[in-house]
Every structure is written in structure tokens, then in C-alpha cells.
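Design job #97: recover the sequence.
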């Protein structure tokens, strides 16, 4: 835990008692803050009480005595309407912040030399965050990994000058961290997302940009420049005197880092040099992972990791569970768990990586179905359709891709494994990339992916990864 000493002796309100809210309340309480916490869920309130955290209905407190409201990132700050606690806080002139802000203030007070790498973007945040942590660990660094990727930031170990923090930040977290000042800030990409919470793509992009705008002049802002929103952000940062490293996987750059022929290149005035090679790294297949790897390599270079170590780290990166996860092999047949692909756009990233696919798809359908994936149909040797979406997907595939209505993941895995093994293809791939939510059959995509992994490992002759 990181005790938050910067609010010692002051009264702090905390709303939202999930993982990050509980961690915030505990970290404040441990350092001597006068904490009062609340949640709309009575079970969470009871749990907080059992953990020794003081609770009270924030409707009834004296807001004139409150120094700050610490809001969980899952609670609306601005759109569609501010949460009632936000309205009460603002009416009383009380600042509204989140756990990332608490960490930033504590880092400046107790360990300003501790490197902080903060990562955001619409896509690829988790993989890039985990990869940077892996690169730094490969270099022998003391690394703390957390934020939106899973571990609440205040549940990590306290700052020291030689301890590096690698933190994934959602737009909600950035919105609650007005003084976020990473040593290395990364903006991977921007596309329309979470507009219900930000009101417009303009607002959403502006929030994302704040992460890299907070990088100090002696730091490093890394920006993927393969979308218009990020290009504009990089240009604004440069005009403001911020140090900017541009990254592209779509084109060569005169000054920056780019990917060409499965190589990460660094281009400067004197020419281009190879930083690392991506060929043959199964956990980093696809153009989207090339961007993740290029940005992670740029961050490692900014933190003085040498190229040999970067290559070692990229080559040994295991990937993330449920994201293009290699779960097993049986001779020629490779089994990939991409259960995180809960919509067509996410499934496209997996489909683009392979040529001979035995595709397990379906679940609770999203708007548009799999019609946007038609360009990838020639890569699919057969589809195995499960869940509520099976009939809809079958109608889309009819006459274009062979398919089998199998209903369940158990039947799909067995059938796909059978057909892939019987094929004469040199590198058949059994791919779970559902293009659907899991909620018709599983509580979340993690449980769905875990079940697929279990089924694959139970197949005869499987070599588990």
C-alpha cells in the first residue's frame, strides 16, 4: 500500500467502494486522513465497515469541512450527468479527484525521482502497459505495474528513486487526475469510444491528450500518429515545447519510431537504425501489436534500456490472457484464445494475423454483427457458431464461409480441433475470437477464455503454452 500522507489530518470524502475506492480509502486512512466513505451498493458499504473504513451517507455530511472528494473512475464526472456527489462537492467548492491524482501528489512529495510511465489510448493500453513492465523487468528494474490494468495504483509499493511505475490509465482516470505528470507518457491512438461518458469525440480526445500534455520538459511524450486526433495532439505538444516521439506502423518517419518489414526502426537526422525485430514473436502478431511494441520500445529507450535488452524482452513477452493468447499446439495446429474480442473491430485484429482459420465465433451479439468482417472471410476455412448470435452470423456467412451450428464452446472446440487436424493446411489455427459479448453463456470474457483454455488443454496430444 502507498499511504497518502498529503491529506493527513484533513477530512476526505470517498465515493465508490470497488477495488480502487477501497484502496484509496485505506491509503488515506492509514496516513492519518479523516475519511468518510460511501457507495450506492449496501454490500460494499458493509465490506468497507468490516475493513475498518468509516462510512456515512455523503448526502448528510458537512461539505464545508471536506478537503476533497475522491471519486471512483466508474462514476460519471460530467456525462451524461454528474453524479450527485460531484454536484454536492462542486456546490461547496470541493475539488473532485481520483486515485491516480492521489498517487501523483504522493509521488511528488515522497519520491519525485521515481520513474512514472503512464499509458493511454483507445486500443492496446493493457498489452503496451504489460509489455513495458516486462521490458523494464528484463532490464533488472524494480517495477510496479497497476492502474486500469488490474491492481489499484495505491495498492502498489511506495515510491523510491529506483522503483519504476508502469500505469495504464483510462479516460475516466485521466479526467480525475488534473496534475498527472508522467516521466514518460504514451498516447497510443484515439478513436470514438465512451462517448456516453464524455459527450463527444472532441471531449474524449482532449481528455486522452491530457496524459501526454502533463509530461515535464525533461520527460518524454510518445504519441502514435496513425490517426488524425493523435497527429493533432503531437503537433500541439511540440508547439508547446514538449519533447515528442512520434510512432507509426503505417509509414516511415523522418524523425521518430516506425515499423517496417517487421522491424522497429528509429529515424533521426542521420538516418534510420533497427531497434528490434518482431518477426517470429507469437505474442506480438499483427499491426496493432506492432504499434504496442513500437511504443513500448520507445518508452524503454527513454528510460535508458539498451536495444539488446529490448529485443530480449520483446522475444520473451508472454502476452496477456484472452488477447491473442497462444494456449496450445498439436502438431501443425495452433490454438489461440482471443476471448477479449467482444465486437467485430476487435475480432478483425485477430483475423488479420492468420491465413487458415477455424473460427469459433458468437455469443451475445453487438450492433452490426460480423458484416464488417467480410474482407476476412477468405481466410476462414470454417466457422463454428455458438450462443445467441449463431443464426444471425450463419445468415451473414451463408454462401461465403462454411459453418457449423454447434451452440456451445465445448462442441465448437472439439469440432474445430478435429477439422483443423484433418486438414492438409500447413499452419491451421483454431481461433476463439467471438466478436460478441459473453453474457449469454458466461459472466464475462475472462471466464469464457478460461473455459476455452481448459478445453484445449484437455485435448489429446496438446502441448500447452
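Job complete. Output follows.
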Amino acid at each position: 500500500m502507498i499511504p497518502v500522507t498529503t491529506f493527513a489530518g484533513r477530512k476526505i470524502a470517498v465515493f465508490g467502494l470497488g477495488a480502487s475506492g477501497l484502496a484509496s480509502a485505506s491509503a488515506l486512512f492509514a496516513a492519518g486522513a479523516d475519511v468518510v466513505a460511501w457507495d450506492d451498493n449496501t454490500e460494499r458499504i458493509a465490506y468497507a465497515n468490516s475493513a475498518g473504513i468509516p462510512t456515512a451517507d455523503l448526502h448528510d455530511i458537512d461539505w464545508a469541512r471536506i478537503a476533497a472528494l475522491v471519486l471512483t473512475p466508474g462514476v460519471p464526472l460530467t456525462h451524461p450527468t454528474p453524479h450527485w456527489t460531484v454536484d454536492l462537492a462542486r456546490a461547496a467548492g470541493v475539488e473532485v479527484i481520483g486515485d491516480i491524482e492521489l498517487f501523483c501528489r504522493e509521488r511528488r512529495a515522497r519520491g519525485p525521482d521515481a520513474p512514472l510511465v503512464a499509458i493511454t489510448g483507445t486500443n492496446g493500453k493493457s498489452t503496451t502497459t504489460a509489455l513495458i513492465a516486462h521490458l523494464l523487468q528484463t532490464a533488472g528494474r524494480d517495477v510496479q505495474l497497476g492502474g486500469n490494468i488490474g491492481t489499484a495504483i495505491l495498492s502498489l509499493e511506495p515510491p523510491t528513486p529506483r522503483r519504476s511505475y508502469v500505469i495504464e490509465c483510462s479516460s475516466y482516470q485521466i479526467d480525475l487526475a488534473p496534475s498527472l505528470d508522467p516521466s514518460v507518457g504514451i498516447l497510443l491512438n484515439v478513436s470514438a469510444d465512451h462517448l456516453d461518458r464524455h459527450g463527444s469525440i472532441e471531449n474524449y480526445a482532449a481528455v486522452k491528450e491530457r496524459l501526454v500534455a502533463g509530461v515535464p520538459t525533461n520527460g518524454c511524450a510518445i504519441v502514435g500518429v496513425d490517426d488524425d486526433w493523435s497527429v493533432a495532439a503531437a503537433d500541439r505538444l511540440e508547439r508547446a515545447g514538449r519533447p515528442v516521439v512520434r510512432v507509426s506502423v503505417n509509414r516511415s518517419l523522418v524523425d521518430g519510431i516506425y515499423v517496417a518489414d517487421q522491424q522497429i526502426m528509429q529515424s533521426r537526422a542521420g538516418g534510420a537504425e533497427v531497434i528490434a525485430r518482431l518477426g517470429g514473436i507469437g505474442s506480438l502478431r499483427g499491426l496493432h501489436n506492432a504499434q504496442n511494441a513500437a511504443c513500448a520500445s520507445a518508452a524503454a529507450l527513454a528510460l535508458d534500456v539498451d536495444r539488446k535488452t529490448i529485443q530480449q524482452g520483446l522475444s520473451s513477452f508472454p502476452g496477456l490472457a484472452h488477447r491473442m493468447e497462444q494456449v496450445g499446439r498439436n502438431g501443425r495446429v495452433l490454438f489461440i484464445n482471443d476471448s477479449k474480442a467482444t465486437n467485430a473491430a476487435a475480432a478483425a485484429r485477430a483475423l488479420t494475423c492468420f491465413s487458415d482459420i477455424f473460427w469459433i465465433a458468437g455469443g451475445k451479439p453487438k450492433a452490426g454483427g460480423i458484416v464488417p468482417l467480410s474482407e476476412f472471410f477468405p481466410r476462414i476455412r470454417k466457422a463454428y457458431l455458438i450462443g445467441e448470435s449463431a443464426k444471425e452470423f450463419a445468415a451473414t456467412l451463408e454462401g461465403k464461409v462454411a459453418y457449423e451450428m454447434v451452440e456451445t464452446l465445448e462442441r465448437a472446440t472439439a469440432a474445430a480441433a478435429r477439422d483443423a487436424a484433418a486438414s492438409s493446411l500447413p499452419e491451421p489455427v483454431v481461433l476463439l475470437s467471438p466478436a460478441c459479448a459473453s453474457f449469454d453463456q458466461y459472466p464475462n470474457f475472462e471466464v469464457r477464455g478460461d473455459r476455452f483454455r481448459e478445453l484445449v488443454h484437455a485435448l489429446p496430444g496438446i502441448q500447452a503454452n
